[in-house]
Write a structure and sequence with these properties.
mainly alpha, about 5% strand, 8 helices, about 75% helix
């Protein structure tokens, strides 16, 4: 609730889906024990800085390209950016290869000095973010299936009611 109100629009603006956003929130909260709105504030900062103040550090320190050229990721400034989630996934996959000083420098670029802890939590716990995304997808799938069953049931009952009404109307007309 509060997390979505705080940073949902920002996440969406950067192409981060609801399931990915909830995964990121989960990864931060589980490590830092921050509230949903605090974690969302951190993510808002991360998403905003990803392709602004942090892009050079991501490319040089993290060795993760942020640009696209003809659909392929590149370090060359093309003014066309990769989607935010793919950059975060690739950065998280390389995180353990970085020195502690490099991690802190990148975390500071991504989250400013105030949000270093949530950035570190997200990067170090990104597999948990992905697990939470999978759970969200499963829940959505189950909800869709439940709705389909309910819809079929309602549709069946409406047809049955229509048939009963037609039979009743025919009986009165005789």
């Amino acid at each position: 609730g509060e997390a979505m109100k705080t940073a949902g629009a920002t996440a969406s603006g950067f192409g981060i889906g609801v399931d990915e956003f909830l995964g990121h929130i989960t990864a931060i909260i589980e490590v830092t024990r921050k509230s949903g709105s605090e974690a969302a504030n951190a993510l808002q900062m991360i998403y905003t800085r990803l392709f602004t103040t942090a892009k050079d550090a991501i490319q040089t320190i993290g060795e993760v390209p942020v640009y696209l050229k003809e659909g392929v990721s590149t370090f060359e400034n093309t003014n066309v950016y990769r989607d935010a989630e793919s950059v975060l996934i690739e950065l998280a996959s390389r995180w353990k290869e970085l020195t502690e000083a490099e991690q802190i420098q990148l975390a500071t670029q991504l989250g400013s000095r105030r949000q270093v802890t949530p950035v570190m939590a997200l990067m170090q716990n990104f597999t948990r973010a992905i697990d939470a995304q999978v759970e969200s997808y499963k829940s959505a799938g189950e909800a869709i299936n439940d709705f389909a069953i309910k819809q079929d049931t309602v549709s069946f009952r409406l047809k049955q009611l229509s048939t009963d009404w037609s039979e009743t109307a025919t009986a009165f007309n005789k």
